[in-house]
Amino acid sequence: MATARVFVARMAALAVFGPDGERIGRVRDVVVSLRVDTRPPRVLGLVVDLSARRSIFVPMLRVADVAPAAVTLATGSVNLRAFDQRPNETRVLGELLDTPVTVRESGAEGSVADVAIEPTRTRDWAATRVAVRFRRTRLARRSRVEVFGWEAVSGLDVAGAQGADRLVAVFDSMRPADVAAALSRLPDGRQRQVVDALDDERLADVFEEMSESDQRELLSYLDEDRAADVLEAMSPDDAADLLGELPDDEAGRLLELMEPGESEPVRRLLRYEWDTAGGLMTPEPITLSPDATVAEALARIRNPEVPPALASMVFVVRAPTATPTGRYLGCVHSQQLLRAAPFELVAGMVDDELPRIGPEAGLGEVTRWFATYNLVAGPVVDAADHLLGAVTVDDVLDHLLPQGWRDRDLATADELATAGELATADVSEVRDA
What we know:
The protein is of the alpha+beta class and 433 residues long. It folds into four domains: 6-87, SH3 type barrels (Roll); 94-159; 163-271, MgtE N-terminal fold (Alpha Horseshoe), CATH 1.25.60.10; 287-400, Roll (CBS-domain). Helices cover 34% and strands 22% of the residues. It contains 19 helices and 18 strands. Strands 1, 2, 3, 4, 5, 6, 7, 8, 9, 10, 11, 12 and 13 form a 13-stranded mixed sheet that branches. A three-stranded mixed sheet has the order 14-15-16. Strands 17-18 form a two-stranded antiparallel ribbon. Strand 9 and strand 10 (109-119) form a beta hairpin. Helix 4 packs across helix 6 and helix 7 crosses helix 9 (224-233). The longest helix is centred in the middle third of the chain and has 11 residues, at 260-270. The chain is elongated and about 80 Å long. The model is unreliable at 409-430 (pLDDT under 50).
């Protein structure tokens, strides 16, 4: 490439040529995808004005050369559909210029005067430098401009440079744990805007991944009716953990506002200490009657709403099959189901020798059970042989980690790699398809 680094403002109105020298149009803007962390955002492509007075999107992977006088494409084939900006996209000239920013080291405040982009070793382009304009002072009659690395300034991540609606659109493509980590770093005002914009189901998923302190803070922001709706959408064990952190009168009011069918399993879990199998378990495992077929069992396992750990095993019980169930007969491992004919009955495959976990078993005993049997889910059965629920290895890990582990700083590059990559999905490839 003729230019290793170029400032976007200098690219405005540059002529765009195809590989054979045919003129295609002029550069109007550069599109980037801001991240939830401080790493430089990926450049997705160019907005190019055609001679027909229409703007199109050209993915950066199609760009062969960016020179001071012109941009050359690697192929003359471009998609002529009109440019339609997507929620996770930001135009540098149209939206980032004049954005207020703060230099992290000095605390000096200024605004974006320009952004530099450059190619990476993977053929992608990234926005790596920010030219910051500082206000005039008594000592300096003219405003000054200084160039900083992208990581050296704050205010240009997804939260700072985009509205709540666009931020929610970016969060839609991220895992709940990554959304929770990103949400915890937002200013209080923006955090509440995002919470207001999320639907109850999505907010419940995010709540389950938050630290206890963040959960309590945001729950106190919600009105009691919506707080009850979010608790209903959460897994009963996670809802019980959250309510267990609240004062008794507040937890009682929220339980009364929940639908009886949703609050009952939560109430049952609250009877147990938090560090026992009864307090750790989920009361909604996959339960089947003995006359269920392998095909039925596999259909239940395939349900995308069932967590992977719970999908590893089905539990065979006498009626009623809702917890607390009738007599517990045993379990069937998912691998067994995959090897069996669809018409076979699960009753003929039951493992009735796997030791059961009592609801009063402590965290240490539960941990040893998982280490001994190399499983990710186990049956919690009372003295009368009723299946009460299932405890999963992820719940055990949550309680084995130091208290408040979610409150620790998650802003390192490695820990946010997944969130950053998901927030900057390869839109150029999608547009190419």
